[in-house]
Amino acid sequence: MFEINDIASDALFYSKKGWFYLFESKYALAQEQFERALEQDSLCINALMGAGTVSWACTNFEGALYFFTRVLTLDPNFSEAYSSRGAIFATMRDYSEALADFNTCIRINESCASGYVNRATLNISFQSYEAALKDLDRALAIELCPAVLIKKAYTNFLLNNFEETIEACTYAVALQPDAACAYYLRGLSHYNTGDYQAALADFDLSLNLIPGAADVYHARACAYQFLMEFELAAQNMQRAAHLDERFKELADKLSSSQNCVVSLAAMPPQLWAQIA
Description:
mainly alpha; 0% strand
């Protein structure tokens, strides 16, 4: 005869396997393990959080909302569930519900870094950059994370705080040397302060990590033009156009005339989705 503790133990076993597969981005296998866990114990919060997270990763937002809400029904003080559910609401553009969940998360647990980060992301989308920076600093005080440093750098970049962007990016790559977008952001900031050689060095580092980044070739072309390296500027713009048709018109103009002035202001660079 099975004891309740045995059932709970089996559920947690399957749930832990699910999280392992989830971290490996093996979503189908993760979902299977979470389902087995919930068959053993439908009240297993660990498995419900996992099922919600894998649903989120698979863009099944309604499913994710169901699981996170189920967690909060069982434990109204589970701060991470509020943070995760709020992020789903934000993705679905239900911003009032998102903000309410982020605020509740932080009120319940002032040490929940994800609550601050998610609220900052929402504030960035509303162009409330100063509020976003305050939340990002709170999150970094709790947990030093390269992704949060890059988000802070991005927010400062949007405010034209280029020195602060450089500082945050430098800190981020010290912790995560393969953070290509941090080199790109730092390069953009060097470009905007007129340090084109430093910008090129950072663009090279970024391209070493992501060779197919059209925006970086575009930025590099702009820097070369300011250094009057017109042939290199044209080559880089052609490479950008080959990777992304957004740059075709600029590439054609630049290849036909050195008098065609290109700049990042003419076509603002797109920052990668992982930042915002």
